[in-house]
């Protein structure tokens, strides 16, 4: 009868996981000024709609109108609500200025969420590692760069731990 050797390896020392770049786990966001009001704008290619928050509509004195094709929006937790209004929202991002139709919803993640419809209309190119959007508008190349989140730390922060060096070899037990 042949016996196979069973090997067990146990890692005694571990190397702490390096902190990910904030751009890897955060969606694109920046700010736009409409009149005297600064508004947070998020761009999310996973969203199938452009949205402006009800609070931003009030704050910017925009005039919502009845949506031509009302529909329901459902969230992950099965909460749904009727979407019945839309609004033409002025947006200025660097050299880009436009008016964008957005559906009006209560939202706290941003004042304006630009999703797949806006990305499609602008024929947007997204560069994932740089977390930038590039497109042509009125014959000009526009590059949108994000604002880092307030809690993002630079990778060279003093709080990050250096890797622990392993001084002794690991042993395989038979």
Automatic annotation (TrEMBL):
Protein name: Uncharacterized protein
Top-level taxonomic group: Eukaryota
Gene3D superfamilies xref list: Acid Proteases
Region called Disordered, residue ranges: 144-174
Organism: Cephalotus follicularis
InterPro entries: Peptidase_aspartic_dom_sf
């Amino acid at each position: 009868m042949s016996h196979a050797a069973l090997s067990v390896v146990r890692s005694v020392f571990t190397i702490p996981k390096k902190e990910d770049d904030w751009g890897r786990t955060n969606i694109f966001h920046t700010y736009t000024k409409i009149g005297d009001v600064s508004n947070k704008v998020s761009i999310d290619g996973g969203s199938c709609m452009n949205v402006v928050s009800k609070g931003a509509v009030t704050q910017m004195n925009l005039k919502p109108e009845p949506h031509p094709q009302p529909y329901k929006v459902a969230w992950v937790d099965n909460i749904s609500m009727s979407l019945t209004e839309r609004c033409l929202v002025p947006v200025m991002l660097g050299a880009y200025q436009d008016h964008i139709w957005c559906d009006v919803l209560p939202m706290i993640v941003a004042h304006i969420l630009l999703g797949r419809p806006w990305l499609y209309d602008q024929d947007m190119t997204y560069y994932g590692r740089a977390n930038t959007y590039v497109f042509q508008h009125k014959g000009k190349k526009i590059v949108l760069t994000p604002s880092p989140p307030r809690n993002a730390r630079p990778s060279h922060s003093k709080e990050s731990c250096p890797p622990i060096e392993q001084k002794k070899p690991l042993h395989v037990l038979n």
